[in-house]
Specification:
mainly alpha; globular
Length: 194
């Protein structure tokens, strides 16, 4: 059981590590357009991301599907950029209420990409171990707990900025998305595989 908690802690540290800010950026971009009032949409997206993220971990760890790390490292900033751009585009389409399903599909695909990104790190950690399931469940649990923490922090920030400082939600989403894009562009350049 102690080993299981070790892997939970490892998953927590992996996401919440400030040097791994690409994960934090993606989750922030994902949660940015939502508030506590739209908790059902946030729950739906978080669930889809968690399921696809865990599937990618399982596929990679059990070598059902292996993807070149170079492409994954490039696709992670692409997912961040795409999510932030979608937030800006979605500001114009918000009244139609159809965009959540595109968001769900994109989040599912992005969950796979991020899961494969985590899997490379995780496979190095368990190299040589026979039992992969317990460490896998612990690591995935730690990652998911940290993701919930980040999403809740973004929702609390949105609440404070929009309620106390009376900033319109559209301005909050626009400024936040632009900041995420500006931070992500150098990552995209650094990981470009060609």
């Amino acid at each position: 059981m102690q080993e299981f908690w070790f892997y939970i802690e490892l998953g927590l540290q992996h996401v919440l590590d400030i040097n791994a800010y690409d994960h934090i950026l993606f989750l922030t971009a994902l949660a940015l357009p939502f508030t506590f009032k739209s908790w059902k949409n946030v729950l739906l997206l978080a669930t889809v991301f968690t399921i696809t993220h865990c599937l990618a971990l399982v596929f990679s760890v059990y070598e059902i599907m292996v993807i070149d790390a170079t492409w994954i490292e490039f696709l992670i900033p692409v997912t961040i950029l795409a999510t932030a751009l979608f937030n800006i585009i979605d500001l114009k389409l918000q009244k139609e209420n159809r965009t959540i399903w595109f968001h769900v599909l994109a989040t599912g695909f992005f969950g796979l990409v991020h899961g494969f990104g985590f899997s490379n790190y995780f496979k190095m950690m368990i190299m040589g171990e026979e039992d992969k399931l317990a460490p896998l469940l612990g690591f995935a649990g730690g990652i998911e707990i940290s993701q919930v923490v980040i999403v809740l922090l973004v929702l609390m920030l949105a609440y404070v900025v929009q309620t106390i400082f009376k900033v319109k939600q559209s301005l909050f989403v626009m400024v936040g998305s632009i900041l995420i894009i500006l931070i992500t562009l150098p990552l995209l350049y650094e990981t470009f595989p060609f």
